Amino acid sequence: MEKYVCIPCGYVYDPAEGDPDSGIAPGTPFAELPDDWVCPVCGASKDDFEVEE
User: Fold this and answer.
1) In terms of Cα–Cα distance, which of 2, 20, 25 is closest to 12?
2) 39-52 burial string, b = 16+ CB within 10 Å, else e?
3) How many CB atoms lie within 10 A of CB 28?
4) Does pTM surpass 0.90?
5) Sheet holding 12-13, edge to edge
């Protein structure tokens, strides 16, 4: 699964880890994150993320 990087702060969403502090289980692909999910570091929206290269 692809990792996604927050453009404003550099946080990397890793689907293998999920975002347990936000109730996102490990194994959750970025595309399946809720539309209202935000970066746990800076609060940016999903639109502010891009695929890590």
Assistant:
1) 2
2) bbeeebebebbeee
3) 19
4) yes
5) 12-13, 4-6, 49-51
Instruction: Judge whether 46 and 29 are in contact, CB under 8 Å.
Output: no
Question: Around Cβ 36, how many Cβ atoms within 10 Å?
Answer: 7
If residue 19 lies in a helix (H) or strand (E), which one and from where to where?
A: none
CA-closest candidate to residue 42, choices 3, 8, 18: 8
Alpha-carbon dihedral angle through residues 31, 44, 39, 51, given to the nearest 10 degrees? 50
How do the pLDDT tens digits run along the chain, 53 residues long? 899 999 999 999 999 999 999 999 999 999 999 999 999 999 999 999 999 98
- Tracing tokens 């639109």 back to the chain, one arrives at 47
